[in-house]
């Protein structure tokens, strides 16, 4: 499954979240760090859902760039 990940630049680091997996977030000092950390967060989040007997939500969120 492929999930949309939103990466945002903060003042001193980067943060990321997955809209289709509420509560699945990560931070990192660099864009590369946050990308690795969110992959790990997704894996742990999905594992926790399965352990709790909960369904893993299917990816539904889409994104595109719009010129203004």
Attribute tags:
alpha+beta, three-stranded antiparallel beta sheet, Double Stranded RNA Binding Domain
What does this 3D model show about the protein?
The protein is α+β, with helices and mostly antiparallel strands and 68 residues long. It has a domain at 6-51: Double Stranded RNA Binding Domain (2-Layer Sandwich). Helix content is 31%, strand content 18%. The chain has one helix and three strands. A three-stranded antiparallel β-sheet has the order 1-2-3, covered by helices on one side. Strand 2 and strand 3 form a beta hairpin. The longest helix is centred in the middle third of the chain and has 21 residues, at 31-51. The chain is flat, with a radius of gyration of 13 Å. The chain starts with 5 loop residues before the first strand and ends in a 17-residue tail after the last helix. 15% of the residues are buried.
Main beta sheet strand tally, sense and closure: 3 strands, antiparallel
Unreliable segments (pLDDT under 50, ≥5 consecutive)? none
Strand order of the largest sheet: 1-2-3
The proportion of residues forming helix, as a percent range, comes to 25-40%
CATH topology of the domain at 6-51: Double Stranded RNA Binding Domain
Distance between the termini: 31 Å
Beta-strand segment tally: 3
Strand content: 15-25%
Question: Which CATH C-level class of the domain at 6-51 is it?
Answer: Alpha Beta
H and E order? EEEH
The number of distinct helices, counting runs of at least 4 residues, comes to 1
């Amino acid at each position: 499954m492929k999930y949309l990940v939103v990466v945002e630049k903060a003042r001193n680091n980067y943060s990321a979240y997955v809209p289709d997996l509420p509560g699945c977030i990560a931070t990192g000092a660099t864009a590369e760090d946050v990308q690795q950390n969110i992959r790990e967060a997704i894996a742990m989040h999905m594992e926790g859902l399965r352990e709790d007997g909960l369904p893993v939500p299917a990816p539904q969120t889409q994104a595109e760039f719009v010129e203004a």
